[in-house]
Each structure stands twice: as structure tokens, then as C-alpha cells.
Automatic annotation (TrEMBL):
CDD domains: enoyl_reductase_like. It comes from Penicillium arizonense. Residues 39-59 are annotated as: Disordered. The keyword Oxidoreductase applies. This is Enoyl reductase (ER) domain-containing protein.
Amino acid sequence: MALLAPSIMSTTSTYIQLDELQKTPTTFHHGLYTESISDFTNDTTSESEPPSPRSEVSRQRVLLLKGAREQYSLVNDHAIPSVLHQGEILVKVLAIGLNPIDWKGPAFNFGIPSLPWINGRDLAGLVLQVPKRSSRLKVGDVVLVPSTDYRDIRKAAFQEYAVATDFNAARIPASTSIHASASVGVAYVAAALALGVSFGLDFSLIKKVPGPNLPDIIKQLNTNDIPDDIREECFASFQDSEKLQQGEWVAIWGASTTTGLIALQLAKLAGLRVICVADAARHGTKLVQSGADLLVDRQDPDRAVEIIRGVTGGKLRYAIDIVGKDTATQLEKTLNPDGHAHLLGLTGLPKERNPGIQYHTVPIKLFHTAPGVGEAMVCWLEDLLHSTNLTLPEIVRAEGGLEGINSALETLRSGSVSGKRIVVDLASPSP
Ligand SMILES: NC(=O)c1ccc[n+]([C@@H]2O[C@H](COP(=O)([O-])OP(=O)(O)OC[C@H]3O[C@@H](n4cnc5c(N)ncnc54)[C@H](OP(=O)(O)O)[C@@H]3O)[C@@H](O)[C@H]2O)c1
């Protein structure tokens, strides 16, 4: 499959700034802001009833996955998803951030609840409808939504309109790029839950831009409200002696991934010392600028283990792998297996388990199943963006709208856009 032609991929310089849209709206964006909103804002709509758009706008274009190992197909007359539950919002999608799972799911046949299905995990868009009860959000806000609830097809990103819960949507400041914002959601959720829940790091101690103490929020939850398969992980760091504290080392293997870059920044804000394993020649500048305390090149994994063990005196207790089982197995060797070392694998863990190490997977669904956790996380993300304490990933913008996604995913899969996020633009008018 051919890579995207250069003419339809562009770099970060072309993304839309929200304040630009608002100051100098083009005819198209003027249309977007007025017509779209008035189509869906209906005073009589209640949360428990599906919305009834007042105009003929009730069908939309979506990208459907019709079979495993198939390309996505564009469908022109799919129903616009309905707001069904308390706290849900309707969003007009303006930009879609692509994640590796968007091609891995179909290619390896996982994470697809049924067929045909709509995929897509990261979006940014315009809020068209808000809950009747009080909400942080209002119609006309521009938000980013990490769509971790992939079992709910209404919330998928590969469509023109998506439903979200208000506690999973973060408002994008006017000075921040909508497209770059569309690229950060799932990476932020994974990084914050890994550090804050699995390792128990207290973000509320950060002076510059305090975040939530997630274990404290979890403590208030009814245990039965936490899904069975993540319950153990959610309580993993409840003993104070196991919690990751300011000043400690944490190693990140795969630090140049989007998730790694966000984890590095959150860890540095919290006062940790961070070891980054990555292609140092390619990504070293960015990692050092983001605060890496030690940069270890990934080309010789055994040497990388020796360096990390040497620098930490063999006492490392916390490590996150963001690449896969093999690198997680390497990373495991850097830890002190005295029973108090923690290894989190975002993509896989070693096959053999060492009884001296505690293993973790990120409890990603906590974000959409626990409103208190989701709300605290998106409020912190809003603060991080507003205070510019979080640098967003560099992006490559893919044109072509929903039709461009198959090709953009091939580019992502090929690895040729290393260290950048591909973001698909839906704000430009369809051809
Ligand atoms: N479990 C979850 O809920 C969850 C959530 C988020 C992400 N994930 C997973 O985490 C992984 C990363 O996701 P992402 O979106 O952050 O990725 P991404 O931004 O697409 O990551 C691409 C980067 O991976 C680096 N990389 C590739 N092979 C590597 C290796 N052997 N060692 C070190 N770095 C390597 C590449 O660097 P080079 O330039 O050096 O090749 C490239 O910069 C994916 O597998 C994703 O599915 C899981």
C-alpha cells in the first residue's frame, strides 16, 4: 500500500489555532459554529431521550470496519449517534488523532466488539449538545476526548459526530492547536493512570500545576463500581510504602512514544528522576528538552540494562515499558527484585514472572467507568494545557478527511513518521 502523498500530509505549521478561528472566522468556520450548533441545540432535548436534530442533519459519514484484516470503508448515510445517558454530550469531530491500535486492532483482530464497527480513540471537536444538569461544558466549547470506551460505538472517533461523557472531555484553550490536542488524549490517560494509580504517585503535591491524588479518589469509590478486571490494579498502590515518591527514579523504555513523552513530562512535574530509553540520536534532543535525567540509547538493549543498573546502583524500583514483551523483559532486569519493585507494561509483560517484582497493566477503563476519576483527570489536563506546562506532541496533519485514514494508518504502521502523531483533519469542508 502506498504511503500518503506528500501533498496531503503537512507538518505542524498548518494546524488550526482556535483563537485564529474565532478572530478571523472563514465562511466555512462561521458555518460550522452557527449552523451546526443550532441544528443540535434543542431546549426540549432531555438527557434520557435521543436528540432530535431540528434540520435534515441526521445522517453522517463514518468509517466502518466490516471485517478483520480489512481496510475501513467510508459510509455516507450512517445515523448520527444519540445522547442516551446522563452526562453525555454530542461533539462535531474536527480532528482525529491516530493511535497504533487503530491499525493493530483490525490487523490482529482484537478490540473489535462486533462487526461492522467504528474505531478511533482520540478526537477533538465542537460541543453541540450538553447535559441538562450542571456541567463544566457548554455548547460551543472545543474539547478533546480520549475515547477509551471503545465498546460504545457512539463514542468512536472515526465519524463526523461522536457522543462522549462530559467527565471524559477536556476543554482546549483558545491559544492551543485543536489538531495537536486531538493527538494527546489516550496517551495522557495511559501515562497519568500508570504513574498515578498503578504506582500511586500523588499529583496533588505538584506546586506549579497541582493534579489529583488518584488513590484518594479511588478510596471514595464503591469497590463494586470498579470493573472486576481492573479492581486489583486500582488498589495496587494503596500501601504507602509502595507509592512512588518525589525524588525517586523511574525508567521509561520507549520514551519517544507519545505516551512516553507525556509520562516523562508528568513525572518531571512531580519531581521524579527519569531514565529514558529511546533512539538517542533521533529523539535525544526532544527528550532532554522535556527533562530526561538520563538518556539511554536503545540500540544495544543489554548495555542499556547495564547503564541503568549502574546509575541507580541496582536499586531501581519503578519502570514502565511502552514497546512490548521483549523490551519489558529487558527492563525487568534493571529492577531490584526485593519484592518492592514495580514493572508496568503498556503493551506486554515478561512471560516468566519474578516473585520479587510486582507487575502492572494500566487500568485504562477506570477513566470512563469512574466519573470522579475521569473528571479529575480532564480538569488537570485542562490546567496543564492552560498553563502550558504540558508540551503537546509534534504532529503531522493528514488531509483527506475520513477517506484519508486508511492511507494515514499505513504511514503510521510503516514507522516512517517517527516521533510524531498523525492527525486527520475533519474541519475542512468535504470535497
Ligand atoms: N494498554 C493501553 O491502554 C495503552 C494505552 C496507550 C498506548 N498503548 C500502547 O503503547 C504503545 C505506544 O503507543 P503510542 O501511541 O504512545 O506510540 P507512538 O507514539 O506511535 O510510538 C512510536 C514510537 O515508538 C518508538 N519505538 C518503536 N520501537 C521501539 C523500541 N524497540 N524501543 C524503544 N522505542 C521504540 C518509535 O521510536 P523510533 O523512532 O526509535 O523507532 C516511535 O517514536 C502502543 O503499542 C500502544 O498500543 C497501550
